[in-house]
Structure formats: C-alpha cells, structure tokens
Amino acid sequence: MKKYIFSALAIATMMVSCNNASPKMDEKPAETGDVNTTEGVRIAYVEVDSLMTQYNFAKEYSVTLEKKSNNARNTLTQKGNLLQTAANNFQQKLQNNGFTSREQAESQQAAIQRQQRDLQELQVRLENELASETQKFNTALRDSLNNFLAQYNKDKKFDIILSKAGDNILFANKKYDITQDVINGLNKRYKSDVAKKEEKQDEKK
C-alpha cells in the first residue's frame, strides 16, 4: 500500500520562517548619509532573513501557514491510517478465505481503491491550497515592502536597494545595510489582525 507523505509543509518552510525574535523598535536606524559607491551611486541592501523573522506581518502569517500545514498533515495521516487498516483487513480476510463469494471480495477491493483515490485527491487539493496561501503571502509581503520603500526612498534617494538572502551578495559593507531601518518602519505601519479586531470592538462600545 502506497505511503502518503504530505509535502506542502516543506513548501511553506522554504518560503517562510518564523522564530521568537522581536523587532527592535528603538534601535538606531542605519546610517545612510554616506551610503555611496566611488562612482556616486547610492546603494543600500536589506537582509531578507532578518525581515522574515522581525517583520510582524511575516511572523504572524508564517504561524498561520504552519497551523494550516499541520492540520492538513494530520488529516492526511488519519485518513492514510484508516486506508492502511482497511487494506490490511482485506488482505487478511482474503488469505483466510473469509469472503463468501468472489463478488464480495471484489466489492470490498473496489471500495478500498476508491478510498485510495479519494486520499490522493485530498492530498493534491490540500497541497494546492497551502501553495496558493503561500503565494498569497509572498505577494502581500512584496507589495508591502515595495509600497514602504517607495515612501522611504523619497527622502533617502537611493539609486539601488538590493535584497540580501544567503550568499547572493558575497560581501557588503555594513554601512549599506538599511535592514533595521526598514523593519522598524514596516512594523510601525503594520496593524496585525489582532489589533484590527480590538479596534473594531472598541468602536462598537
């Protein structure tokens, strides 16, 4: 019997990571006055890993994705176990000549095959749903960052703002790092779902 493995969690964790790091809202923003190259081009970069672990929106959404992934995995595991049990019972009954007729055996076998197809379809649907939710998060994160940087750069006037993830930038002077400045600004603009609900409740009072 085929063993089903739910892989959507891997998708989510590749795209989203979350820990208990809290944003340092009182940390001094990056020094940007002398952020220039020798040719006069103003360059800055943002650490993606730090953004994902300190931007409240990313932290909250990753928790949501993890919960959905765990729920889907538990559902698939439960249904997979039921299918395995049914298959084992069928095989044991078949070996012990427990069926009264060939038609009865074929009917039960067909039922198990339908159960197997249903499980396969459920797995695909749940994986697609989680992938869609992850894509929704990535789009929202990108839009949020782009909108913030558009306002942020009106004063800073950088020519280039790079995203630094892993080793895509092998070396960069820390004076070009505006990560904390961006995180602080994003968190000041962001209102969590919890905060929005509390505001609505206060308005009703």
List low-pLDDT spans: 1-30
Task: Give the number of helices.
Answer: 6
Largest sheet: 2 strands, parallel
Number of strands: 2
Helix content: 55-70%
Strand order of the largest sheet: 1-2
N-to-C CA distance? 58 Å
Beta-strand portion reads under 5%
The best one-word shape is elongated
Structural class: mainly alpha
User: What is the rounded Rg?
Assistant: 26 Å
The mean pLDDT is: 83
Pattern of helices and strands: HEHHHEHH
Description of the structure:
The protein is mostly helical and 205 residues long. 65% of the residues lie in helices and 5% in strands. The chain has six helices and two strands, in the order H-E-H-H-H-E-H-H. The chain has helices spanning 8-15, 48-54, 56-95, 102-156, 179-189, 193-204, and strands at residues 43-47, 160-164. A two-stranded parallel sheet has the order 1-2. Helix 1 (8-15) runs antiparallel to helix 3 (56-95), helix 2 (48-54) packs parallel to helix 5 (179-189) and helix 3 (56-95) packs antiparallel against helix 4. The termini are far apart.
Question: How would you briefly describe this protein structure?
Answer:
This protein is mainly α. The protein contains six helices and two strands.
Write the layout of secondary structure elements.
Blueprint lengths: L7 H8 L27 E5 H7 L1 H40 L6 H55 L3 E5 L14 H11 L3 H12 L1
Parallel strand pairs: 1-2
Helix pairs in contact: 1-3, 1-4, 2-5, 3-4
What features would you highlight for this structure?
205 residues, mainly alpha, two-stranded parallel sheet, 65% helix
